[in-house]
Amino acid sequence: xxxxxxxxxxxxxxxxxxxxxxxxxxxxxxxxxxxxxxxxxxxxxxxxxxxxxxxxxxxxxxxxxxxxxxxxxxxxxxxxxxxxxxxxxxxxxxxxxxxxxxxxxxxxxxxxxxxxxxxxxxxxxxxxxxxxxxxxxxxxxxxxxxxxxxxxxxxxxxxxxxxxxxxxxxxxxxxxxxxxxxxxxxxxxxxxxxxxxxxxxxxxxxxxxxxxxxxxxxxxxxxxxxxxxxxxxxxxxxxxxxxxxxxxxxxxxxxxx
Length: 257
Description:
With 257 residues, this protein is α/β, with parallel strands linked by helices.
């Protein structure tokens, strides 16, 4: 998404590679040193998703603060917190609390994930007044519908729903991770509402076999992860159905079974 958005405004995107898959702490996580190394006088915006998609990896609060403090003043850092409601707060911190300290920080969030309002297409950005004024000047005049705004405001007050969503997601992450590892998969640590699992065969074939069983997951070959699937956390029963299907496919010796 970020390279496409960058190109749409006539700018050039430079995508920094992730940490290696065998990294001892955060496999496939953000490599902040590599991101910083690529910043030069032409750089205007740095995008960081925390937690990240499609890996679910995250950056600890101290590392994010150190990175923001090191950025040149002419560079805006956009921290995409689309999945932050699922994460344990002591892992990531709350980037919205850093806005006064870093005038070049923008935090984006959405109601499409933990709040369950994906169909209404509502999100928001937090920034200093100067950046907010600029964003307000260039945004489309009718970018959010009135019904979506009403639902979003109500959702912000529904702490009980978010607590239930977070609890169900935490249990689902444990269920998926433990079962996938028993099936021989390597599972990337996740603070989001999905897991990224590596298999011993092309993920596209597994995806086709799951689709024939009425199960939808996300292949991520477009990220260079040809043997990985991104699997969203569902209910306990939904997770069980997925895991049973994968077990059947993998144990059958053919992903086309």
